[in-house]
Design brief:
Blueprint lengths: L1 E3 L5 E4 L9 H6 L2 H7 L8 E2 L10 E2 L8 H27 L14 H20 L26 H12 L1
Parallel strand pairs: 3-4
Antiparallel strand pairs: 1-2
Length: about 170
């Protein structure tokens, strides 16, 4: 799980769970989730795909939108969330070992996690120093590989107010 900024720099990364772990499990067990839940981060929203639980601070797409405003929200959500997909793509092009098209990292779990974090740090250094993106096949995960079907709590009301006010 990772969070990036608009410049494609990772600002949070969790690389301690197996790849088969569900997005919502990784999120619920992350320090970032605890910081938001405990209101240590009092403002702001994160955007997540449908694999994440909807919360007041974690906005997900509207499943089966029925109004023009919900469709507009989903369009804006997709366009904005594209930043993290692009970040992953650039990272995987810079560090081909992170792209599963060539197989998987054949190391212990601990070493693999260290490689993931190290390449993310190196990626941030590249971004900070304006190292050009490498050329090659774009690697983009569309985020449609899992769907969270848990309780939506008050995140649904928060998203509804946003849609009504902005779209």
């Amino acid at each position: 799980m990772a969070v990036c900024d608009a410049k494609l720099k990772f600002i949070n990364i969790v690389a301690k769970w197996p790849g088969s772990s569900h997005d919502s499990f990784v999120w619920n067990n992350s320090t970032l989730c605890q910081l938001f839940e405990n209101k240590n981060i009092p403002r702001g929203w994160l955007l997540g795909d449908s694999g994440y639980p909807l919360r007041t601070f974690l906005l997900t797409p509207v499943m089966n939108p029925t109004t023009p405003k919900e469709n507009a929200y989903n369009t804006a959500h997709i366009k904005t969330r594209n930043v993290i997909e692009r970040c992953f793509g650039v990272w995987k092009m810079r560090f081909r070992c992170m792209d599963t098209s060539g197989g998987t990292l054949q190391f212990s779990t601990k070493r693999t996690c260290n490689i993931i974090v190290a390449t993310a740090v190196l990626h941030n250094i590249c971004v900070e120093n304006r190292v050009p993106e490498t050329q090659g096949r774009p690697v983009i995960n569309d985020g449609n590989d899992c769907v969270y079907r848990g309780t939506l709590n008050d995140g649904n009301d928060n998203r509804r107010r946003l849609i009504e006010a902005r779209f």
